[in-house]
Design goal:
single chain; 306 residues; alpha+beta; Phosphatase 2c, domain 1; nine-stranded antiparallel beta sheet; five-stranded antiparallel beta sheet; 14 strands; 36% strand
């Protein structure tokens, strides 16, 4: 039996931008009776300005979520990575929170957004912990918008160089919610939806950002949000920046190709294969991928005559 001995241990790098929250466990070795320390990562954040992964595909596991990062090819002229992401998971409360960013003209905007969400993490996680109700995602969206619309945050944005696209995805129970600013993409792969030709949940919107040019400083802020019921069985959620989709040769611009590449393989292996493929195709732009499977045991909605 595993017994938790330390919870919510925080590990920081030299800067505040790479952050991991872990749980430590003692696991008794059945053969020798020795105690073994295991680390279970439950929260993670990263920005490309801290570690760029240029020429270096990287895949890591955060709880049940797989994170893939590739900074692009130096031979194609790449020398920096302005992507970022944050992942929070809580198996007991049955939710995942994912933040993915794709900045340009420096990573300052991505750094600021990650830092702001880490600062508001406790309040957001209190919302995430609440029971699922008809207004659960609306209250969560209100909380997220408060972060973006905070005057202190908006003032800091005006002092930055550059801006970022941003997507936030939350899964709770058999539902997924997203808020999207710009052109990051959320896919849901499920055989029933694939049969209907549906893969992508949000639409890419161009000329929307957070940062020096900030949609939340406009008269009417522009963003999109939505909620989707997951289907019974295996649901595969996949969030990505556009580097994966706009690679030379466009191997994954068609979501059917993307879904096929991730079928019948361990997720970490599938994502590593995606990143190796775009590396071999000479992609310049960086790519960040966050993906996980959700097994739904409840019946989904069907038409009254089905």
């Amino acid at each position: 039996m595993e017994v938790p001995v330390v919870k919510n241990t925080r590990i920081f790098t030299a800067t505040t931008y790479i952050y991991m929250e872990v749980e430590l466990y003692f696991k008794k070795n059945a053969e020798g009776g020795k105690a073994k320390v295991e680390i279970k990562m439950t929260n993670f954040s990263w920005v490309g300005s801290e570690q760029d992964f240029v020429d270096q595909p990287d895949v890591k596991q955060v709880g049940n979520i797989t994170v893939g990062r590739f900074g692009g090819n130096s031979l194609a002229g790449q020398y920096k990575n302005e992507d970022a992401c944050a992942v929070w998971t809580n198996e007991k409360e049955d939710w995942e929170f994912v933040l993915v960013l794709d900045a340009h003209n420096t990573a300052e905007s991505a750094e600021l957004v990650v830092k702001e969400f880490m600062k508001n993490k406790e309040e957001i996680q209190l919302k995430l912990a609440k029971p699922l109700t008809a207004v659960y995602f609306q209250h969560l969206e209100d909380q997220v918008l408060m972060v973006f619309q905070n005057e202190e945050f908006r003032k800091a944005c005006r002092e930055l160089q550059g801006e970022t696209a941003c997507i936030i995805v939350v899964r709770k129970g058999k539902f997924v919610w997203w808020l999207s600013i710009g052109d990051c993409v959320l896919y849901l792969f499920h055989h029933e939806l694939a049969a209907m030709g549906q893969f992508q949940l949000n639409q890419r919107h161009f000329y929307e950002w957070v940062g020096q040019v900030n949609t939340f400083d406009r008269l009417v802020p522009c963003f999109s949000s939505g909620t989707k019921e997951l289907r019974e069985g295996d649901n595969h959620l996949f969030v990505t920046t556009d580097g994966l989709l706009e690679c030379p040769g466009e191997p994954y611009s068609n979501p059917r190709n993307l879904a096929a590449a991730l079928t019948d393989v361990p997720l970490c292996d599938g994502i590593h294969s995606l990143l190796k493929t775009i590396q071999e195709n000479g992609v310049r732009d960086s790519s960040t991928v966050v993906s996980w499977h959700v097994d739904v045991r409840e019946a989904a909605t069907y038409a009254s005559n089905q």
